[in-house]
Specification:
single chain; 0% strand
């Protein structure tokens, strides 16, 4: 079961699962403090940074399943 979906807000995900911040940064989304992180969803943020969304989603969901 996946807990995190592509259309979820970046900041909502980080608030609910703090361990996801490290996963996002490891995948190249180090902009958690920027204004866009407050209104972009994960898919939009990944697209803006050229990040493989499927790999990111797998890593995020793995981090919350542990």
């Amino acid at each position: 079961m996946t807990a995190i979906a592509k259309d979820m807000s970046i900041m909502d995900v980080v608030r609910q699962w703090p361990q996801t911040a490290q996963v996002l940064m490891q995948h190249g989304m180090g902009c958690l403090g920027c204004a866009a992180a407050h209104f972009e969803n994960i898919e939009q943020g990944a697209a803006a940074h050229g990040i493989d969304i499927e790999a990111l989603m797998a890593a995020l969901n793995e981090s919350v399943a542990e």
